[in-house]
Amino acid sequence: MVSKPESLSKEHILSSFDCGKEPLNSWLHKYALQNQNANHTKTMVFTQNDSKIVVGYYSYNVISVEHVNSTPERVSKGLAKHPIPVLLIARLAIDQTHKGQGLGKRLFRAALKHAITISTVVPIRAVIVDALDEETKAFYTAFDFESFPADSFRMWLLMKDLLNSVPH
Q1: What is the pTM of this model?
Q2: Which residues constitute the domain of residue 149?
Q3: What gap in Å lies between CA 61 and CA 38, rounded to an integer?
Q4: Is residue 100 part of a domain?
Q5: How crowded is residue 105: how many other Cβ atoms within 10 Å of its Cβ?
Q6: Cβ atoms of 57 and 85 closer than 8 Å
Q7: Residue 57 belongs to a domain with what CATH number?
Q8: Is residue 71 part of a domain?
Q9: Which residues, other chains included, contact 96 with Cβ-Cβ below 8 Å and sequence gap of 6+?
Q10: Which of 52, 59, 16 is nearest to 34 (CA)?
Q11: Of all helices (H) and strands (E), which one includes residue 160?
């Protein structure tokens, strides 16, 4: 059993976390709390049972994309030629000991629900993710994310499509 997502703090135990992808491991171990304290990213974690041992996490921040040919038409359509605010789910990972239990989907659904909540106070046109490889790209595709024209590993979902997919 795992906890609901909670904000990363110095009390969380990160040392045993291993998702099998070194960039995601080292970012969590070395930079997640530092970036959060600097107000650069926010990291939400799942912990094991009632412990503070982290078994999954996602990090996000609000960024903007420009009106350029590489921006999907549905993201920029109908907007002035100003930067477009989007929520970037920058990282998402599950410890290898918890893979195959549906925790990745649960964590990503929590991230998308969080995006909806954020969109009630911060204007967000779309949610963007960066897939590390074909496996993660397939994972995001199952949630209706589409690839950017110029970079098939950067993927997006319009906020209005996300809102329409949530049961009322």
Answers
A1: 0.89
A2: 6-165
A3: 12
A4: yes
A5: 13
A6: no
A7: 3.40.630.30
A8: yes
A9: 18, 19, 20
A10: 59
A11: helix 159-165
Residue 104 placed within a domain: yes
At 14, the amino acid letter reads L
Domain-embedded: residue 1: no
Q: What is the pLDDT along the chain (168 residues), one digit of tens a residue?
A: 788 899 999 999 999 999 999 999 999 999 999 999 999 999 999 998 889 999 999 999 998 877 665 566 666 666 667 778 899 999 999 999 999 899 999 999 999 999 999 999 999 989 999 999 999 999 999 999 999 888 889 999 999 999 988 664
* Helix, strand, or coil (residue 78): coil
Q: How many CA atoms within 13 Å lie on the side-chain side of 17?
A: 28
Q: What residues are annotated to the active site?
A: 140
Q: Beta 154-158 vs 146-147: how paired, if at all?
A: antiparallel
The total of structural domains in the chain comes to: 1
Q: Please give the distance of CA 122 from its chain centroid, rounded to a whole number.
A: 16
The Cα–Cα gap between 90 and 58 comes to: 7
Alpha-carbon distances of 15 from 30, 32, 55, 59, 81, rounded to whole Å: 10, 13, 11, 18, 45
